[in-house]
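The methods section describes the discrete structure representation at length, but only in general terms. What matters is that the chain and its backbone geometry are given together, residue for residue. For illustration, here is how one protein appears when written out as sequence plus structure tokens:
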Amino acid sequence: MENFRNSFLISMPHLTDTFFEKTVLYICDHNPQGAMGVVVNRPLASGKVAVVLQSLGLDEATKLSEIMEVYYGGPVQPTLGFVLHSSDYSLEDTEEISSRISLSTNIQIFQDIQNDAGPRQFRFALGYAGWGAGQLEREISNGDWLVVPADPEFIFETPDRSKWTEAARQFGIEVSQISGFGGSA
């Protein structure tokens, strides 16, 4: 089994459902039981940031909403928050995905970000994308996803509106010209 942890999944043009159309996912975990990833290019409406942060019980939600965006992370558990961040920061329960990218769910990270003691780069997402055993491999075989190596700078620095096309373009692929459908003669 090929392991796709620390890779990007780029949705193919034929995926037009509301969850994954023109999506770039970062795979955080992949093992024989399944896979888990976070969408990195779909910010929620900016007016929702303070409301989301307040719902997490953060006292200084207004200040945080000025320095943080909230992203759609995926359709599974959409009220669960994940912070994908640079590995220059760690809490006891932080999951190091690569030497440069980590994932935290501890609410302490918000207080540290607010106090300039958090990670240098971060992305807060609600929900995640999940696959059962063999499901992701089948979707890739079906041509639903293009798998490319992950690049931390791409996650945190590339503008969200261009991530889908730029992710593929960095590897010499014009994704809008590709069809995931096979044919027969």
In short: Residues 11 and 23 are 5 Å apart (CA to CA).
